[in-house]
Records
---
Amino acid sequence: MTDLVLARLQDGLADNRLELPRCADCGTLVWYPRARCPHCMSGNLVWEELSGTGTVYSYTVNHRGQGEYAGHDPFVIAYVELAEGPRVLSHVDSADVRVGDPVRLRGGLSQEGHVRLTFEKEEPR
Amino acid sequence: MTVRIAGAYEHPLRRIPDRTVPQVIAEVAYGALADAGLGPADVDGFFCSEVPGLGSVAMSDHLGLGGLSYVDVTEGGGASYPMHVGHAAAAVAAGKCRVALVAMAGLPLSGQGTTGGARGPEHPYEAGYGITTPAGYALAARRHMHEYGTTAEQLAEIKVAAAHHAQYNPNAKLRDPVTVEDVVNSPMISDPLHRLDCCITTDGGGALVIVAEDVARTLPRRTVKVLGHGETIKHSEIGRLDLTHTGAAVSGPRAFAEAGLTPKDVDYVSIYDSFTITVLMSLEDLGFCEKGKGGAFVTGGTLRADGELPFNTDGGGLCNNHPDSRGGMIRTIEAVRQLRDEAAPEVQVPGCRIGLVQGHGGNLGFRTAAATLLLGAEDA
């Protein structure tokens, strides 16, 4: 079975674009991606490229990972609030993260092709 | 019509290597029925979460439940059992059944946890991060700290109170008192949550019997009134998840309204303590203190048996028992003990008349079920 919605997100991420479905009827930007709009039920969803920027809404330095992260050095799991609104689960590749830090998407897929949004801190200008 | 809890039973063991899950469910179900002065042939309503076999069918057969007229398999993780009590109370009040059994068990330490089933729709979007159960709660704790200035030392006060109570429970898994320093100096699991901010995992289970008032009048033991119930699912809001509230902000007011009570009326609380942050946020959401002031509220022994708002006097899931990583059943059972005046003497709340149970299931960092019960002593 192919999940066409998941595949669509992965296709964008493979080209380093973060694209999410927006409901053409009510305007809701949908995270996580779905085939129907959970706000108004519409199936009229249009994929839209996002800026790939956001800020850290919350984070944890995880000392006890699971699966391939078992025994891994401590690593940062965060919710990043995208500039366009949704709060997405992510990795932040930095040892020094604070709530509110501006971040930018660096990559979206693991080596195996699974969704793994990875952000890095934006350098202050 | 007032519906009553007439029987309660908590399995005394915390590691059970030599029995199956159905066998332990039978032990706790028969324990609760015996406590009520009833037997399996009297049961006409059965309420459970995921149990071995098809729905509730195989376990009803295994338990020999007689003449079932109402069954309900509601899965809300650790919140399932206060949900079941609410559902059972509604079914009894509607005349659908008169003697309802709620039972659960799991043996995760023996590799027989019951949680599982098909992956949820969110799985491809959340599974790739190495996230753990504590990490989800840590995300909630970090945001609460950011918005309200909550500290690790304040969270630790919750574990200190639970451990103080556990020393009086001979069946508790962890019986040693701890200090705030012990908690904040314990190994970091998922920053800001330390090992002693985390619940234990145990084998075990528990059961409750809910009956109609006319049945209660025929029984020998003291019963507990079900005064109010509320439940909800708090979800991720299409990506606009708020990490600083629990579902108790919705289930709590509904339960208080149904009971015609306010937080000031409550003598004792059983709060699902999967992690210290779960308790702190629940207390705020239930209205025991202002939102964001939970840290100050729990500081200074507030939650101890001799404090302003005694909580989890058996030691809770942090110290006593957390079978199958589902805390709602044992939390409800300790509230029943308090309202029957049968808690350990060192932690019994004198004249305890109104108790509150708060259950949560799932993960506060993602999506959760929440259920609130307001319970009353026999003369309340």
---
Amino acid sequence: MRGGVDLFVNGTPVHVRGDGTKPLLSVLRNELGLRGSRFGCGTEQCGACMVLIDGEPSFSCARPIESLAGKRVTTVEGLSPAGSLSPLQQAFLDEQAGQCGYCLSGILISAAALLARNPRPSRSEIAAALDRHLCRCGAHNRIMRAVARAGGQMGGAP
Amino acid sequence: MTTPHTGPRSGLPNSLLDNPLLGTWIGFEETGRVRLATGKVEIGQGVLTALAQIAAEELDVSPARLRIVSGETPTSPREGFTSGSNSIAVSGSSIRLVCAEVRALFLRYVADRLACPIGALTIDDGRFLRAGRHIGQDYWSIAGEIDLARSATGDAAPKPPSSYRIVGQSVPRIDLAAKLAGSAFIHDLAPENLLHARMLRRPWSGARLADLDEAAVRRAAGAPIEIVRAGDLVAFTSDDEVAAMRAAQTARGLAAWAGGAKPSSDAGEPNWLRDQRTRDRIVETGAAAGVAGNRVVEASFSRPFLAYASIGPSCALAEFKDGKLTVWTHSQGVFELRRWLAHALGIDPTHVTVLHRQGAGCYGHNSADDVAFDAAFVAMRTPNRTVRVQWTREDEFSAAPMGSAMVVGLRAVLDANARPADWTIEIWSPVHAQRPGMNGHANLLGAEALPEAPPPPAEINDVADEAGGGATRNAQALYDLPRHKLVHHLLPDVPVRTSSLRGLGAFANVFAIESFMDELAEIAGEDPVAYRLSLMSDPRERRVIETAAEMADWFRATAGDGRARGLGFARYKNRAAYAAVVAEVEVDEQVRLTRVWAAVDAGLVVNPDGAANQIEGGIIQAASWTLKESVRFADGRVASDSWESYPILHFSEIPEIDIRFIEARHQPALGLGEASLGPTAAAIGNAVTRALGKRIRALPLTRERIMATLLAEN
């Protein structure tokens, strides 16, 4: 990775230098100060690190930064303007959808991608979209209700 | 205004006896804000929101005015571990008494100044009113006049529950918005002078590091690292987190270990548990003579070792500067941690500050204390840097404490009406608590790898029965039993590090007892709910079972086509919340959990939505344990060291869940965070038995076990 990698993070152009094999997650957290994406396992098995890459939910914990030239990355911080919550995040708050909250930023990413292509998902469609995410506290039903609620509020076909 | 400072009186909650000064708990230092200090900490359970509600209620201020100081050794009341579903009952009752007394002190002061009766005064969001009219004074304008450095007396009567306006409401979690927006965890602290570190863990207890190719580790790191080593404890530090991670990962593969005690590959299986050395005791109640019965029924149940498996690996930060150590941790007990960190590191405890910061979900004594030691260990060898240590996912599965495996044998002698005349429960289990300080030992993993580490305690004990018991938690069935015998085989020297996982022994005991009750009901030819009720006289116990049955339409629901329902009941610790759970399953080659209903009596419920969240979370976690989870060993190591090899319940496997709380606001608040787990396991087990026509008594109820059972039938 001579010369570094250029990509977009939450709409802003970013130039990343150094080792091209380092994972996207560590660049986000340690170099860009975006600490909403979380380390859970480092092996793409829990979903805590999920971000959007060109609109697709993708694990960031093992994704080499050098594979992201020209890509658009969206993190949980990019879902809403600073200091406010997006309608999706507000729906999570309204449903009190969380216990410890560690898994939520990754789940919000997959939920946002789901609602973008299917604004009125069924419970089983929501479950399928979130199945790469683990939650240990057992907030699953609240989370699924929050996603459904956000879908309803965001409009779309009935 | 001075008042003689008297000591606290007995009869007050322990937290208040240990921290008698009102000003330790409550302060009005910042205008418009109330400082509420608690020794209890947020571990994902929503406790700070509930404690804030209790304080706001008694002080008559809006909950939004509260600023909570939680788990900080310089400023928090010295309370014990945040564990055992005790926080609301113990810390909450202390806060209620303190706030009632503070409120009364202020009212008395205002009444004296206005020369009016106290009864003429009210408080509206911290402002004082006389006969309904503001007098231009509030807590903050008067605070300088009232010395809160005085001992609580417990004399001020708290409000009657019938007048509650904040307690009993589903106030939203005070921490959730920040967690939804991004950074709110200890993992996210990023001071300027951060130094990253990762640890090399011993693969089994007592292993000695025979060889480590440090040059290879440095090459793999890809950026400069330092290797900090003392005895068999090794850390890799770097300004670059990725380098530290790669160093640790490489070292894990390269390190050669010798000696120590390797667990065998059948560790945790029922026969392995029965074969360990035991220390035994027997507790009998009721007369053995005159037992009228002849039919003997026996069955044996088990659960394997279980992992805490929090989604976020444990993390801590530490800084050693000018001879003082500061540690940021998500420990459940900052005061005990301070004491034992100091002990293990040979530093004066008064030079150690421990500050709680929130971590990922905590379901018992996990690796939070261990990683705090790791960070402190590295910090003392690299002064003036803030050291951040995070465990790897593999170490979370293999080096963190585990929930104890257990065998629970039950034996009943039935009378002519198929009711138990004689009942014996026999438990084989390693201990369920090895937190810092227990058995007089630091119980900090890294400290055990240091040169000249103190030897392990000669004798280890489980949680005492008076404290709720460890392996014996919920061992005493709550049914009307004329004679009861408990045989407790404590396994003192297993080569597996066990400690307190949510519910401790209650999970396996309730699974066993409630499974056995279904077996007895079947022998009696009676419905399992009706059979239970025939042996139950406590109206609160009966009511949760009746309510759960009613919610699930128990007596009209029909089984068939591999679909069936089962019920489980317990009162957690036989003194906390009551819970009855009905589970509906579909079984073919594996179990699909389709619906769950739960009825809970937790006395006064401070925050109904938060309480429902805890009950539901417990149901889902218990379902995961029951259907999927088991720690496996191979070659002396934990083989289940990833989410692939230690699967938990996924979103697509989550049942719909209905929860109902029994109205009991005039009863004391009962701890509920661990109440639903045992009943859920039993409800699932009983449902699966009815669907299969055959009982599986060893958890988890995996596809392999179901298939083996089906094949054995044919």
